Fold these 2 entries.
Entry 1:
Amino acid sequence: MISDVSGATERSMPADATIYVAGHRGLVGSAILRHLQGQGYRNLVTRTHAELDLTRQAAVEAFFERERPAYVFLAAARVGGILANSTQPAEFLYDNLAIQTNVLQAAWKSKVQRLLFLGSSCIYPRNAPQPLKEEYLLTGELEPSNEPYAVAKIAGLKMCEAYNRQYGTQFIAVMPTNLYGPNDNFDLETSHVIPALIRKFHEAVSKGADEVVVWGTGAPRREFLYVDDLADACGFLMNLPSGTIDRDFRQPNQPVFINVGTGKDMTIGELAETIAAISGFRGRIRFDPSKPDGTPRKILDLSRLRALDWRPKVPLTEGIRKVRDWYAGESHRFTGKETDRVS
Ligand code: GFB
């Protein structure tokens, strides 16, 4: 291990290590990039989608051969909210399987020292006991509204396990709860609930509308994590001494993944009221039960992460205010319909 820039704490990734952040323009990748820059890392490698299409195997292998990153954060993915997941099952499977297969294989071949794969809390069975422990993986049926995405992410973390066991790689994975933050997708058809509601309430206030429609019944419960907290957890986990969470990674059935969340959840109805209050909206909130609710509850068990002494810092209302302010500054960009993207 090498000391960090200030020399204050020890960490595994040296300040001059070559670190590739895949998906650096997306919600998660951009937060990881900000975090690493803030920590003094100065050899960060990024490629836009136009520069490197991660679904093309030859291009990915050539990139890894040329750049030889020592560390990789794999945050590139096809992502979206409940509607995008159910209307584009082919893209959610194909893009995610292709991206992660190509990157993990190239990372192994080019001898990457450690890789962190981003999963999702939707990998857990729909009816698993709550809070969701890592060991509940593959103990029951998945939530149908995002089964293709979940299957791809489960394949990704199983690939991490398989490569670790067979080839001795150090691939770890995090399963974050629902995320929100700047640089999110604010398209009303394809986004997740927080950006959608920030946009809906912002537009209602600017236009003087007296009603905002919220999908579903308002009863499902979700846990929300500010993306900078996730980025902090990712940096923290990548810097753990080898063996801390991957001690048993060569043994069958030992999870290489770890949940990241806040341990607190709320109903979608409560979330809508919170965002309405922050936005200064005083009209009516109408629920539209013709839209899907998705999984009834999804709260993560954080025992493994807490045992490592990591905690999130940004309270929900503070995080929502930050995103609302960011969106207000950028809202001119979101007036039309955004196209879906792999970020
Ligand atoms: O965030 P969301 O799209 O994804 O929806 P999931 C969460 C809840 O918010 C659902 C409700 O019950 C939605 O019906 N909701 C209310 C809305 N109004 C809106 C709205 O205007 N837009 C959206 N999008 N939702 C995703 C998975 O599930 O969670 C992904 O589809 C991924 O694969 C992600 O795992 C973390 O929490 O239901």
Note: Residues 81-82, 85, 120, 122, 145-146, 149, 178, 191-193, 196-197, 214-216, 220, 222, 268, 291-294 surround GFB (CB under 6 Å).
Entry 2:
Amino acid sequence: MNTTNEVKSHTHDNAPPFEAEVSRIAFAKARLAFGVHSQLSTQARLAELSKLKQTILANRSTIITRVMQEVGKCRTDALIAEILGTLDWLNWLEKNAERLLRPEQVKTPITLLGKQSLLLHEPLGVVLIICPWNYPFHNAITGIAAAIVTGNAVVYKPSEHAPCKGMVEQVLACSPVLQALVQVVYGTGSMGSALIEQQPAKIFFTGSGPTGSKIMAQASQALIPVELELGGKDPMIVFTDAPMARSVAGALWGGFTNAGQSCSGVERLLVEQSGYERFVDALVKGAEKLVVRSGDSGDADVGRMTVGFQRDKVIEHVQDALERGARLRFGAVPNVNSLTVQPIILDRVTPDMRVWSEETFGPVLPVMAFSTEAHAIELANDTDYGLCASVFTADAARALRVAGALEVGGVSINNVNMSEGNPGLPFGGAKKSGFGKLRGPEGLLGFTRSKAVLIDKAGSRIEANWYPYTPRKFKLFERFIQALYAPRRFRLLAIAWHGLRLEAFSQKPRK
Ligand code: NAD
């Protein structure tokens, strides 16, 4: 196990010099490993990640149990999100990374006749990955794997609220290469800040908007690139023509999976007016059947919430909504002494309520009616957030129309929380839900620096655009440009004619 793993959590108040020292050591080790393993091919890196995939698969029960104990999610949530989601990403990398990362021949335009263009995807160096507490295994491994396969080394800091100490290191122990390339550092936000001081090549941050903003401010001092995967207030829009049973089941799962502590969970349910009452009645009936318990053996639907401050936010949002006239259709104001929170359904919700305008990040489904398609889009977009959304309708054209009009990073049609289910699709928000992507080709290349290479022959000729500049050359260049963008009919001929004259003239020395 890496020595940096032994570091204990520290608060903002104590031992910043200690945090600085731990950070310095972690980066020194990661930089060393980056140098040692810099020649590893993508294929060789994939071979190490393949060991990791097998280790995760073989040790899934231990991982699930650990995550359940620490963050309280129910067993099936842990299996699907932490294990399946992670394996699926590793699998996608195995199938696609080599193709996406190999040098690309890029078409060279006629203006650069005789030359070749190449695009290289190179590693950045040591990437800092900072994670939140809601998916402590999945978030960690997804970012780490993307960074490693692209040739980087990693310093990874989990959340102090779900450190799952030693868990990531245990799976990485399947490969000494991965062990060396990934340094895990534990601590609070001030440790995160100390790590940024070490000037990582990039910061990949997943967490809340306010922290993202602080990280960006600190990173800006040293011009460190940042990628921010932030919170959401995802809308689910249900039209009356959508099959009711499926949309009700989708809303329940979308709102309550991971006890509502999912960045792209359904936080605003918009239901078409004509079917509204029937839909909410069915939703309540469905919620009555949900089994809420932590420490289950696969027989519970919803686990406990992870941290008290998040449960308190749920209480605040629900109380605020009730004071402003919302109706509690299911559940109750959570008990301050328990992290087990019954799912809550609220209707008669208005946009000024906190439960509608702020990220709640708990098992609460506020429901609102809409009159027309335009009204649904307007309500859905009326937020600073823009992570994901879902649209349920039997009308395929309408579904695509609405998906196109939503200001979000991903849309699931007749499904919920599922655009992120495909590792080949990029995941990441619009507006204040962040920028940059994780997964998909775009997400993978986010961990690389593209390098443009132009290859010319080692001849004795000089280029037309090199010195000397003369009035004659200027004229020839003008004619050449005119030819380049001339009407199609004579273009090729004109380009050849003026290009050759320019070329011939350029070889003459200045008189
Ligand atoms: P948070 O912002 O409080 O903390 C996230 C991480 O940042 C933690 O590891 C924390 O220690 C660290 N941190 C805090 N201050 C820091 C600083 N100044 N410098 C460096 N690091 C610092 O978020 P959280 O409460 O752990 O997570 C919940 C939030 O994460 C929600 O808003 C949720 O929507 C969001 N989230 C987003 C995604 C996504 O992919 N978009 C995924 C999961 C969670």
Note: The longest strand covers residues 116-123.
